[in-house]
Amino acid sequence: MYIYGHKNPDTDAIVSAVVASRLYKALGYECQALRLGELNKETQFVQEYFGFAIPELKEALPDGSQVVLVDHNEISQSLDNLNELEIFAIIDHHKFNLKTSSPLNIRAEIIGSTASILYKMFVENSIEIDKQTAGMLIAAIISDTLYFRSPTSTEQDREIVEKLNKIAGIADLETFSLQMFDAKSDLSEFTPEQIITMDYKPFDFNGKKFCIGVMETTSPDFALNMQQQLIEAQVKIKSENNLDGLLFFVVDILHEQSTAITCSEFETQTVLEAFEASQVSEQILNVGSIVSRKKQIVPILEAYFS
Ligand code: MG
Ligand code: MG
Ligand code: MG
Q1: Are both 169 and 39 inside the same structural domain?
Q2: What is the pTM (predicted TM-score) of this model?
Q3: Cα gap 260→248, rounded to integer Å
């Protein structure tokens, strides 16, 4: 079995693929964690901190291969020939948009990260969690919940981190979380296009083809200082991919608020109306205390376009 997180992988996608492969191996399956894109700076920091092997990049599998999907379930975020693959299991915490041709195992919960679900699966199967695995799971939970700032985080995520840290022994989780977020915020070596598409997902809003990029950062000024380049990059990506709309949100992790940098009049109007945003300048919109694409941005846009 090949175990994959989503395209444009985040820390939860990479960690969950690696940890799920450890779980399935302990259960007697032959499996391998793989990935569908490059590690972001935060995930690189986490990988170096805990020293786990990076899953191999493998963007295509032969038809009929058996896969496990973690941290996603939509074909647009997965292998292009997903409909020709055999999905053995999905472990996820996103909304579902899925049709399969054969039965499969699904484990989905309303919880802050896929890593939290994997913790439960280890416990349920009485499989011991080693120190490295515990640390990796903590990092993925911190990443997805923005260290419990995001409305996606639950009491369970907090309890799980507490239990895992009895094994991992990270001295100061707050400091560790800031190290992760600062690593993610260092975007100096990336092009504007890479910054837009680093944490980037496609959506269909009532027949309109959208992509939404988010930049979770401890230094939002970095993005605002390069707003013109970020606008130009969005215009280019939008036209190359024939999108109806492209939105880019700069999420200020520490102040728990977001700014949209919009690429055309359509996006500006959409954000102003859907989010009741306030206009800082023509293409810079303050959307207030919004930090989660999954729980805030996407539902708001779905309601707006329906
Ligand atoms: Mg993810
Ligand atoms: Mg996740
Ligand atoms: Mg995220």
Answers
A1: yes
A2: 0.95
A3: 6
**Closest ligand to residue 117's CA:** 2
pLDDT in the model for residue 101: 85
For residue 81, the CA-to-ligand 2 centroid distance in Å is 22
The pLDDT value recorded for residue 245 is: 98
What band does 98 get if pLDDT is binned at 50, 70 and 90? Answer: confident
67 beta partners: 2, 87
CA 16 / ligand 1 centre spacing (Å) = 9
CA of 28 to the centre of ligand 3 (A): 31
Q: Which of 148, 183, 218 is the last residue of a domain?
A: 183
b vs e for 221-242, b when ≥16 Cβ sit within 10 Å of the residue's Cβ? ebbeebbeebbebbeebbeeee
Q: At which of 163, 183, 203 does a domain end?
A: 183
Dist. CA 159 → ligand 1 center (Å)? 21
Domain total of the chain: 2
